[in-house]
Amino acid sequence: MQELITRGKELLADGSVVGILGWKEGDFSYNPEPAFFQNEEELDKFIYDGFCGANLSKFMIEASKKEGKTLVFLKPCDTYSFNQLLKEHRIDREKAYIIGVGCSGKLSLDKIKEAGVKGIQKITEEEDKIHVETLYGDKTLNRSDVLLDRCHVCKGKEHRIFDEIIGESKETNDKDKFSEVEAIEKMSSEEKFLFFQKELSKCIRCNACRNVCPACSCRKCVFDSNKFDSAQKVNTNSFEEKMFHIIRAFHVAGRCTDCGECSRVCPEGIPLHLFNRKFIKDIDELYGEFRAGEDAETVGPLTEFTFDDAEPQEAVERG
Amino acid sequence: MQRIGVFVCHCGSNIAATVDVERVAQYALLEPGVVHAEDYQYMCSEAGQMKIIEAVKEKNLTGIVVCSCSPRMHETTFRNAAKRAGINPYMVEIANIREHCSWIHKDKEEGTEKAVILARAAIAKVNLNTPLVPGESRVTKRALIIGGGIAGIQTALDIADAGYEVDIVEKTPSIGGRMSQLDKTFPTLDCSACILTPKMVDAAAHEKINIYTYSEVDKVSGFVGDFTVDIRKKARSIDMDKCTGCGVCSEKCPMKKIPSEFNRGLGNRSAIYTPFAQAIPNVPVIDRENCIKFKTGKCGLCSTVCQAGAIDYEQEDEIISEKYGAIVVATGFDTIKLDDFDEYAYNQSKDVITSLELERVMNAAGPTKGHLERLSDGKHPEEIVFIQCVGSRDVTCRGKEYCSKVCCMYTAKHAMLIRDKYPDVNVTVFYIDVRTPGKNFDEFYRRAVEEYNVNYVKGQVGKVAPMENGKLLVQGVDLLDNRQILKEADMVVLATAIEPEAGVRKIATMLTASIDTNDFLTEAHPKLRPVESPTAGVFLSGVCQGPKDIPETVAQAGAAAVKAIGLLAKDKLLTNPCTAQADELLCNGCSTCANVCPYGAIAYEEKEINDHGIRETRRVAAVNTALCQGCGACTVTCPSGAMDLQGFSNRQILAEVDAICR
């Protein structure tokens, strides 16, 4: 972490960048939040640890409008979102100086709590272990037991775009990314409906998923615009509460990099990534494997036409 | 608020028998904006149109809903009526209560309910309609013909004779197509080459016709009157300007054992070859896959012997981009593969051949120099069995459900020619039905039966089994005598079903022209617009549209030419005003719409945008309305909803959905 701060200060001092997108300590030590640093003093609050799951790519949209370059710290998976935004002309590559930071998987506070840990005071990380100081004494947990679900299906620790890389990464992928989706696919229509009914009925429409999503970067969201009847609609029935998430899933289909931020930030713990991952699976199967954000040039299969494309009938037959 | 008039058509009994038209009109009156509703026997008649015009004047209507047939049928009629009444033609909406409703319902109650709902949707849409004004686009006075068979050649000649430039793109090394492979033609028995080659020569010599052989269409963009087409001239490995067509290269080529496509694999050709003697252009092609020079780097004999120095091993594919006002598809056909028809032993015996192969065998320039002989041992056959409908009228999904149409006649032709030249040969034809509608066709068939004593057996063949004595045991059935037939034959000829040429699907996709389940191109109307594709500016010539014989093909080729000429004769076309528009305040500048636009109509520009007082220069989409065809792909792909289609706005469509779901 110190290395990152030192490098950030250097770049600020020599004028290479005019601001820095990183993380700083939040209300609790284990709850860091995205931050924009404009001078060296502010950087003393910079933090990078296992709880810095937040993907900073989206903040580059605003940073691209500023004079001068912004230093942005990106984890390997964040670089996919950055590339996707670059592809969609939402950010300016010239305005970003990218330091790729190492990642050994990010931690889930929920999982730590689920492990029966209460009254957390401080959390320190070791290679494979997590030490938790609590009001009721210390506890040690295996890192792999408390990783965010998304880190178990990690896309890989390679930065897809960067100017320099600082820090080591450790592979955390140990699960099949589509196993959750396949489990749902096996359900009957009724079971599926009940499953999503149960999950989505928890939604309080706080918009956190949308606001954090790098693919949901529209200047004006259709749900906020008075041009559409969908704007700020109150859930008047059980169908409409699903509409928001289903429409959102359609809007990011083919563009979603599966960064998993939607599920991470949902205060109700709705597994929102499942919608997106189902689309990714379908796209892979119908059009060949595609990973949004792998680079900033390839046109996605949903916005390109080739003669090898699946015929509509195939999709119909799959149901 | 609009003042809407609703006009419900009976269409005689077409609609009125299944839909209570009066009730539809009554219900329509309850809808918001509707100030007038009536029903009438035939809205499209002059009297019906006058009812609309009078109502517009009397009730000051601003919008019109006609509940009638498909808009493809009469939308233009009613738009013109609106224009005559003095309101904008785009204030008319059609509720299709015929094709979408009365024709598919039996129960009047259900039909009426649906008609009311469809009317409601159209009314909801008209409430949001705005007047639209069409623009103009130019017409490039040049036609492209895809396919250089008899259909393509005839269309090209007719268009060129009318004074327009024509390009023919043919994928094989020579024009001529399937007809060039035929020996004689029914019902006159004149030699195919004798009547085809003069036309090939005419096309090649015509100052308005330009022929690209060994070439394929790579890409099509644009729209009626203004297509841009990329043509890939495949590397021939020969400099066409230098080649004199002397043929020495083919003679000397050491690689001579390549099955000749022209002879349906029955004879061989060299690696450098012209497909047949009368080929146009008379310039060979190097088949790079089989050429020793290309395979090993050694040889180069053709280059050594070529006096003209025309051989060019380095030649590369060339892309030619050209503009066209009209495109005619004349891609023709091939026979189906017989792999699934094991019972006829086609893959087991050389003496079981297709009719197209028999054409080559009977042809003086063919593999046997025109002698009828068994391909296995060269012996003269004494007993020949023809089997009709091999893969045609076949509901087993191995073949085609349709009738290939030409087989009855060419089988009669083959039978007659054989009996004429070799009276010692017995000829038996197994058939399901003999179909001979056409001028002088039935007389032709009767001659085969009565004068030439061809033995016609109504019934199908279950199996052809090669025997140890070299003969073929044909097991068939005579349905009229109700008995099994076992016949030892020396040769069996299969009247193999025809199907559209394999590449047609790709071409149809490039042209956005629709095709049916058998890959035949669809007509704009099966009866009234049989040579036009539903895609404006695309015309159909020959078998690509459906099975047909040579006289029919030539007639259709001429008809397609007339339609193309009608288009090329115009200087300007009115464009569809239902084009896309970007809301700059909502546009993210993400380029997704430009990626999906099939017409290249969307560009991006850096523009200063004033968003409620906040000025910002940013990237936004700009639609070129001259190129936009209103397909709407951009509107559904735009994540922010910035793209909208005039005449089919998101609001209008959602209003229709809401009205239907109400």
Explain this structure.
Chain A has three domains: 1-104 and 156-173, no CATH class; 109-146, no CATH class; 176-319, no CATH class. Chain A is globular and about 60 Å long. Chain A has helices at residues 2-13, 60-63, 76-87, 109-114, 149-152, 179-185, 189-200, 208-212, 240-252, 261-265, 273-287, 312-318, and strands at 19-24, 33-37, 70-74, 96-101, 120-125, 129-134, 137-142, 164-166. In chain A, strands 2-1-3-4-8 form a five-stranded mixed sheet. Chain A has a three-stranded antiparallel sheet with strand order 5-6-7, with no helix packed on it. Chain A is 32% helix and 13% strand. In chain B, α3 links the parallel β3 and β4. In chain B, the strands form twelve sheets. In chain B, strands 10-7-6-18-29 form a five-stranded parallel sheet. In chain B, strands 20-27-21-22-23 form a five-stranded parallel sheet. In chain B, α4 (108-126) packs antiparallel against α17 (650-661) and α11 packs parallel to α12. The longest helix of chain B is centred in the N-terminal third of the chain and has 19 residues, at 108-126. Chain B has 17 helices and 34 strands. Chain B: Belongs to the HdrA family. Chain B: Keywords: 4Fe-4S, FAD, Flavoprotein, Iron, Iron-sulfur, Metal-binding, Oxidoreductase.
Short description:
The complex is a heterodimer of chains A (319) and B (662). Helix content of chain A is 32%, strand content 13%.
Write the layout of secondary structure elements.
The complex is a heterodimer of chains A (319) and B (662).
Chain A: H1 2-13, E1 19-24, E2 33-37, H2 60-63, E3 70-74, H3 76-87, E4 96-101, H4 109-114, E5 120-125, E6 129-134, E7 137-142, H5 149-152, E8 164-166, H6 179-185, H7 189-200, H8 208-212, H9 240-252, H10 261-265, H11 273-287, H12 312-318
Parallel strand pairs in A: 1-3, 3-4, 4-8
Antiparallel strand pairs in A: 1-2, 5-6, 6-7
Chain B: E1 4-9, H1 21-29, E2 34-40, H2 46-59, E3 63-68, H3 71-85, E4 92-96, H4 108-126, E5 136-138, E6 142-146, H5 150-161, E7 165-169, E8 184-185, E9 190-191, H6 192-205, E10 209-212, E11 215-223, E12 226-233, H7 248-252, E13 258-259, E14 268-269, E15 272-273, E16 285-286, H8 292-296, H9 301-305, E17 318-324, E18 326-329, E19 333-335, E20 352-354, H10 355-362, E21 383-390, H11 407-421, E22 426-431, H12 441-450, E23 455-458, E24 461-466, E25 472-478, E26 483-489, E27 491-496, E28 498-500, H13 504-511, E29 538-540, H14 550-568, E30 572-574, E31 580-582, H15 592-596, E32 602-611, E33 614-623, H16 633-637, E34 643-645, H17 650-661
Parallel strand pairs in B: 1-2, 1-3, 3-4, 6-7, 6-18, 7-10, 18-29, 20-27, 21-22, 21-27, 22-23
Antiparallel strand pairs in B: 5-30, 8-9, 11-12, 12-17, 13-14, 15-16, 19-28, 24-25, 25-26, 31-34, 32-33
Helix pairs in contact in B: 1-4, 2-3, 4-17, 5-6, 5-14, 11-12
